[in-house]
Every structure is written in structure tokens, then in C-alpha cells.
Amino acid sequence: MSAVWLQIGQCGNQIGQEWWQIVTSTSNREADLYPFCSQDGHLSAVCVDSEPKVVRKLQKQIKRGLFRESNLIMGKQGRGSNWAYGYHGVRSESEQNLCSRTMESLRKEAEKRDFYGGTVLFHSLSGGTGAGLSSRLCEAIREEFPLGHILSVSVAPHQAGESPLQHYNALLCLSWLQRYADGVLLFHNDEVLKRAAAPLARKDTPEASCQVSFPSMNAYLASCLAGLLCPLKIFTSQSGVSMGMEPWELLRTVCPMPAFKFLHTAQASTRGTVFWDSLASSVLQPLPRQSLDGTPHQSTAVLAVARGPREDAFLANPSLVLRKLRQGYRCVSWNPFAATYWTDAASLVTPGRHSLTVCANHSSSADLLQRVEQRARAMYESNAFLHWYWRHGCEEGDFEQAFETVRSVLEDYSHLGE
């Protein structure tokens, strides 16, 4: 076992709830749960939120006794959708620092590992706890475990707006992730909504996107994570036990250069007869093709994970799918092994179901960074809402450094094909 799973804030714990439901429902043997549990049978998960409601609901929804009670860390008041409040915390003795309590639990979980490979974080980019506390914890984990990997699962807010502070929060959080994380599985709420609505649209259901609930969006997101991170036979020992290396092998595969950390993930699935090239087409159909200024998007690396009982059909001609993905994601010419694949005969969630999950280091991530940077810059130059950040310990240098970091990432992505 090598990973510790850290769920932060309302969004992070809701995603975690869907993730653990998949993991516990598809694990029929003790060996299947081994990558996710300590030797005492508790999940290697730490759940933290500044309010208790979501964590308590998570505890009730997942099989009783799987969560270690000391790893459920809750505060008494929210963080007001303010990155600075989440990062610096409550300045009072009445509420012990959430960061220090979380790090203590994480250290204990790491000590229980046969081998500590790293931490996987679930969080949002817009909330005070999800953006602010996750930034602080990411920084603290890097300092405490400098050799361990950090994989962030980050959810960006709707463009239409969820909070007037979301652009500041996303800017600051993205800059912290660029500095301290090794890779970021970046999900956009608008894109997740469209993909979760796709099955309803195929049934000619009017206003399909209006019928998609947050749990449905979280379920799609968790299904993508399961496609990438659930145990694969190629990473199991001869005795059939997984060591939980999938997150770190993912980073090694799709993050060939340290400067490019933001990853695009999509999934298509079907029951019954499967045509893997058709699933590849379904993955590619909604993929952004051009940047905001009309420049074609490119990818440094693409990983396809095929799961289902007909994996033999995929293995019979993998080049057909890889060629389609290489062309659709416009892989750079300087990487001779830009597209690769993993397969497994086990289905996820539903027996007999086939899924194709694709993770790509794709330059469309820069579109989000550019929108966030531009909108945050406009607000910053107008001094909009800044007093809320100064009040909780944020300084001008934090913003200036965040702007510089994001601009540097955008500059790197603009020269991706060179």
C-alpha cells in the first residue's frame, strides 16, 4: 500500500463519497481492498472540512467502520468562500488549527504504510476550505514528505459563477498546486455537466443538462478516477495483491515534464458488445480543439485505460485506438511515446460494462488558467473584495506571486509544440 487519500472541503468529501462507494462495491475480496486499507481494515483516508455536515453524511453513506474516527477532522465554522481564511485558518484558541490536526492524522497514516508513495487530494478550486486549506496542506505535505508524490484532483467552478471570490480563490490555489503538486487532474464543472448529461441526451430527453444533479456529476467524476486509479493486473504482484502504484505510474506516464502538470480526463462506457474505436470517438467528440485565441491544442502525453471483459478485443489491435487518440489530442512530435495504454478485464461498478478512460496532458487546461488570470486581474486592479483577503492574513505578495506563476504556466503551454 502506498497512497494516503485526503479529502478536503465540501466538494472533496462529496467526490470522496462517490469514490469510496465505487471502491467498496467493486471489492469482493480482501485483496481488492488492500491498496486502500491499513492492516487493521480501516481506509487510508483523511477527511477534513471546516463544518461537520458533509463529513458526517459521508461516514453514514460508506460501510460502517471503514473510516478511522480520528481521521474525520471537522471544524465548527465555514471559511466563507475565502482562500485566505481557509489558508490561514481561525485565529483563536477555541478551535485547534485544522491544518495541524490533518497533518498529524496524515503522518500516522503514512507510518502505517509498508511504503509511502504519496498523497492523493480531492478538493475544489473555488471554496474557502477546498481552495485555501488544500493549498496550505499541499505545501505542508511537500515540506513533510519531500520525496512523496502529490496528485491533486481539482474541480473548477462553473464559468457562470458560484461565488464572487471564485476567481481569486482559483488563481491562488492553482499557483500553489503548480509549485507543490506533481500532477493535477483538473475537472471543469461545465464540462462534467455536459458529459454527465450525455446519456440523457441520447435518450432524446429535453433539457438534459437541467436534469443532472450534483451527485450525478460527482458520480461521473468518481468513475473517471476509478478508471485511472483502481487496481490493474499489470501492477499486481505474483500473488495477485495490488500495491496501489496506479497514481504514481499515472504521473510518470502523463507528466513527462515538470512544468506541465494539468491533466484533462474523460471517459466513455458501454454495456454488451464493445467497439473500442467507437468509445475513443465518444471521448474525443467534446474535446476542446482550439485555445481562446484560435491556436490548436496539443498534448505532451496521452494514457488510455480500457476496462471490461472484452479487453482481448482491445489488445488485438491497440494501435487503432492509440492512433485515433494521438490524432485527436494532437500529440507533440518530440515525444516518441506520447500515447500508451493500460488494460484490465475487470469491469467497474456494473458487471459486463466496458469503459475507456483517457488522461491527457492537454493544453486546453491553459484556457481555464487564462480565464481565471484575466478575471482575477481585472478584479485585483479594481481593488474588488481585497479587504476580505487582507483581513485574514493575505498579502499583496501572495497575489503578485500567483499572477506570475500562472502567467509562467501559460507561457510554457503556448510553446508546447516547439
Order of helices and strands: EHHEHEHHEHEHEHHHEHEHHEEHHH
Number of strands: 10
Strand order of the largest sheet: 3-2-1-4-5-6-7-10-8-9
Overall body shape: globular
Distance separating the two termini = 39 Å
Compute the average pLDDT: 90
Sheet/helix structural class: alpha/beta
Task: Name the beta content range.
Answer: 15-25%
Radius of gyration: 21 Å
With helices defined by DSSP (H or I, 4 residues minimum), what is the helix count?
16
Q: State the helicity in percent bands.
A: 40-55%
Poorly predicted runs: none
If you had to describe this structure to a student in words, what would you say it looks like?
The chain is built from 16 helices and ten strands. The chain is of the alpha/beta class. α6 packs parallel to α7 (166-180) and α11 packs parallel to α13 (318-328). α6 links the parallel β4 (118-124) and β5 (149-156). The protein has helices at residues 9-26, 30-33, 53-61, 83-88, 98-112, 128-144, 166-180, 189-202, 214-229, 246-254, 276-284, 311-316, 318-328, 365-381, 386-391, 396-414, and strands at 3-8, 45-49, 72-74, 118-124, 149-156, 183-188, 262-271, 299-307, 339-344, 353-362.
Set down the secondary structure blueprint.
Elements (H helix, E strand, L loop, with lengths): L2 E6 H18 L3 H4 L11 E5 L3 H9 L10 E3 L8 H6 L9 H15 L5 E7 L3 H17 L4 E8 L9 H15 L2 E6 H14 L11 H16 L16 H9 L7 E10 L4 H9 L14 E9 L3 H6 L1 H11 L10 E6 L8 E10 L2 H17 L4 H6 L4 H19 L4
Parallel strand pairs: 1-2, 1-4, 2-3, 4-5, 5-6, 6-7, 8-9
Antiparallel strand pairs: 7-10, 8-10
Helix pairs in contact: 1-3, 1-6, 1-9, 5-6, 6-7, 7-14, 7-16, 8-9, 11-13, 14-16
